[in-house]
Design a protein that fits this description.
The complex is a heterodimer of chains A (365) and B (302).
Chain A (H helix, E strand, L loop, with lengths): L1 H16 L15 E5 L9 H12 L14 E5 L6 H11 L3 E5 L4 H7 L7 E5 L9 E6 L1 H18 L6 E6 L4 H17 L4 E6 L6 H13 L2 E7 L5 H12 L5 E6 L7 E3 L2 E2 L1 E7 L2 H13 L6 E4 L6 E3 L8 H16 L8 H6 L13
Parallel strand pairs in A: 1-2, 1-3, 3-4, 4-5, 5-13, 6-7, 6-8, 8-9, 9-12
Antiparallel strand pairs in A: 10-11, 12-14
Chain B lengths: L1 H29 L7 H21 L5 H27 L4 H24 L20 H19 L1 H11 L1 H6 L4 H27 L11 H11 L4 H20 L4 H4 L3 H19 L19
Helix pairs in contact in B: 1-5, 1-8, 1-9, 1-10, 2-3, 2-4, 2-8, 2-9, 3-4, 3-8, 5-6, 9-10, 10-12
The chains are: A alpha/beta (365), B mainly alpha (302).
């Protein structure tokens, strides 16, 4: 009897976990979409949040009032990578117009599942090598936005008259995508300080802020002025350390990534420890794909998002970012768009052109 | 060398919560109950502490908010460990199953609470967590120190500690001399819940800016490993927790030494696990586990 009660209790716990709402059937011809995310979910203030924002926006809702959730769109979070394929197949069986996944960690799973559902439209962001006729792939020119935040950090240091500033970069899992962030950032820094000392570190994890925090402390202590983290949740550690040190009166900065992380960095009043953020507007991909599905123009292709179509950018939310600095960044932005400034997106190219120092931990695909 | 010294506060920041949790797990196992729910209890404590801190901070409460949040985290850990205590001690259930149940429950409950409070799968970010002292060390390190010393003193210097250990070695014998085995096991399980919740709060308030489903990231299980690796002794557990923490910190500082940078980063990332494996092989041999660990106590049965 007692065992029965225990088992019943555990079953109850199980059902509580999986009690997410089921999709209702939709009769009008508005496209339906399911977003599949990695473990960080749609509130990562970053990548997944942006994809979700785009979806919600398409249906005229807001994130706080997602009225169409469960009717037109929903989201499933995969707590572990072994859930990627089951989640994809489940979504495929449930018949959404579009299944969207974010991040290159999904590429292998999607490459395996997409051919099994030839009539299903799939969207993946940050990948251009799935190459299936039913998969729309989006890639971003992250090196352009990262160049701008690197420029911002360097110009701010220069404007504050800091002698020999050092700069840091913290990445998540090394790979081609993150290398674009690092290379852009490095080239932005070097355009102001050609001999700047740059340190970098890969946590090999998107969810270990304690590693970024320990590294950030170590670097700030050794005279690093600004650290750019392109590391998902791991980057929260950098922001936490920068907040602590700024509150103690040290002049150090964190740089946010993907979404505007200004709010995350607020430590006192309206003061934020996040100098600027490299913006990657993944919402543009959601909107593009949904509009394509609506207009019947959806096809398997690689869509490139850059400064030109406002796919990447930088944040001016921090009022401590000096006006002259913003002006100079805007000028650089125009030069990048016109092709006057050339930015290398791979370490191989950047090294060959002498645009990045040797010895960085960046990896090309 | 100065780089290494500078890393000490970071090592303490990483080690403290693991150590606090591991000591709780040790006390629990010493009494004869295995608590694999440590991971989930840490998550519940972390979520509670983060939520409480965000809400209290918004009222302009200042520093006391951090401490109150820690206490709330510990309290929530204690409350949820009652489930494990009831299942394991009253119902004589399989302790692995009820522990796993709590771990699963914690995933759901924390997200559910965050949804209610903040309409998101994570808590809102707080402005400022714990502050370091002049040496750059967080109060969590001192909390961990106190916990270790207290645990050692109670377990080995007080009659209560001997009773508790007797319950884990031979509950029937303890029962025969009038020790209330169930009561002692209850106290042990609730203590481990309290400490795991406290450690969860320590993690969230010293290492990041909000609670997410990723915050604990397996550290409850590392603590569990530290218990057996440390041979169920306070000093051993402390050593084990430091070994895990230092190995992790080493992977961080290694990149700052040009000579070490020549090695692939994977080397440093597998280091904590390799060291653990080697240490396990070197120190294995005699079984140091409490003899009745994990076995339900049925009064009157022999």
């Amino acid at each position: 009897m007692k065992k029965v009660i225990v088992i019943a209790l555990i079953c109850l716990m199980g059902t509580m976990l999986f009690a997410a709402g089921a999709k209702e059937t939709v009769v009008d011809d508005t496209p339906t979409i399911r977003l599949l995310t990695d473990a960080t979910g749609i509130d990562d203030k970053s990548f997944n949040a942006a994809a979700w924002r785009g979806i919600v926006e398409f249906y005229g809702d807001t994130v706080d009032n997602a009225a169409g959730r469960g009717k037109y769109y929903d989201v499933v979070t995969a707590q572990t990578q072994d859930m990627y394929i089951p989640n994809l197949k489940q979504a495929g069986d449930e018949g959404y117009d579009i299944i969207m996944v974010t991040g290159f960690t999904w590429a292998d799973a999607l490459g395996e599942v997409a051919p099994l559902y030839p009539d299903q439209k799939f969207v993946i962001v940050d990948v251009d090598w799935v190459g299936q006729p039913n998969v729309m792939e989006f890639i971003y020119s992250e090196e352009q936005g990262s160049y701008l935040v690197g420029l911002a950090a360097a110009l701010q240091a220069k404007a504050e008259g800091i002698a020999n500033p050092r700069f840091g970069f913290i990445g998540g899992v090394p790979g081609g995508t993150i290398t674009k962030f690092e290379m852009g950032y490095v080239q932005g820094l070097l355009s102001v300080f050609p001999n700047a000392s740059i340190v970098d570190y890969y946590a090999n994890d998107w969810g270990k802020p304690e590693l970024a925090k320990a590294q950030a402390k170590n670097w700030y202590d050794s005279g690093v002025y600004a650290i750019f983290s392109a590391a998902g949740g791991t980057g929260n550690g950098t922001i936490a350390q920068a907040k602590e040190y700024r509150l103690q009166g040290k002049n150090v900065w964190a740089i946010g990534v993907d979404s505007d992380q200004h709010e995350d960095g607020i430590y006192e009043g309206n003061k934020s420890a996040v100098l600027t953020s490299m913006l990657k507007r993944v919402e543009a991909s959601s909107l593009y794909a949904l509009n394509a599905a609506k207009n019947g123009t959806f096809k398997g292709e690689v869509v490139k998002m850059s400064l030109l179509d406002d796919g990447v950018g930088y944040s001016q939310a921090n009022s401590e970012l000096k006006a002259d600095v913003v002006k100079a960044i805007e000028a650089a932005k125009a030069d990048i768009m016109s092709g006057k400034i050339k930015i290398y997106g791979t370490y191989r190219e950047a090294l060959a052109a002498g645009a990045a120092p040797a010895g960085l931990a960046a990896l090309d695909d | 060398m100065s780089t290494l010294l500078r890393m000490i506060p970071s090592v303490l920041m990483i080690v403290s919560p693991i150590l606090i949790t591991a000591i709780g797990g040790m006390i629990c196992e010493k009494s004869g109950v295995v608590n694999i729910a440590l991971e989930g209890l840490m998550g519940l404590g972390a979520c509670a502490a983060a939520s409480a801190h965000v809400l209290m901070e918004a009222t302009g409460m200042g520093t006391p908010s951090v401490w109150l949040a820690l206490a709330i985290g510990a309290g929530v850990g204690l409350v949820f460990s009652i489930i494990h205590a009831v299942a394991a001690i009253n119902f004589n259930a399989d302790q692995t199953i009820s522990g796993t149940g709590i771990n699963l429950l914690a995933d759901g409950v924390t997200i559910f609470v965050a949804q209610i409070l903040f309409s998101a799968d994570r808590t809102r970010e707080f402005r400022m967590g714990m502050q370091t002292d002049k040496l750059g060390i967080y109060p969590t390190a001192y909390i961990a120190l106190v916990v270790v010393i207290l645990a050692w003193f109670v377990l080995y210097k007080l009659p209560f500690g001997m009773h508790l250990r007797a319950c884990g070695e031979h509950p029937q014998a303890a029962d025969s001399v009038g020790i209330n085995v169930r009561k002692i096991r209850y106290i042990a399980v609730l203590t481990s819940g309290l400490l795991a919740g406290l450690a969860g709060g320590c993690i969230v308030l010293t290492q990041t800016i909000q609670y997410t489903s990723n915050t604990i990231n397996g550290r409850g299980f590392i603590a569990l490993a530290a218990v057996s690796f440390g041979r169920w002794r306070p000093v051993g557990v402390t050593f084990a927790a430091f070994l895990f923490g230092t190995a992790q910190a080493f992977s961080i500082i290694a990149v700052n030494f040009p000579a070490l940078k020549a090695l692939p980063t994977e080397v440093f990332n597998i280091l904590p696990y390799v060291i653990t494996l080697i240490a396990l092989v070197l120190f294995s041999g005699k079984n140091f586990a409490p003899r009745a660990n994990g076995q339900p106590f049925i009064k009157g049965a022999s």
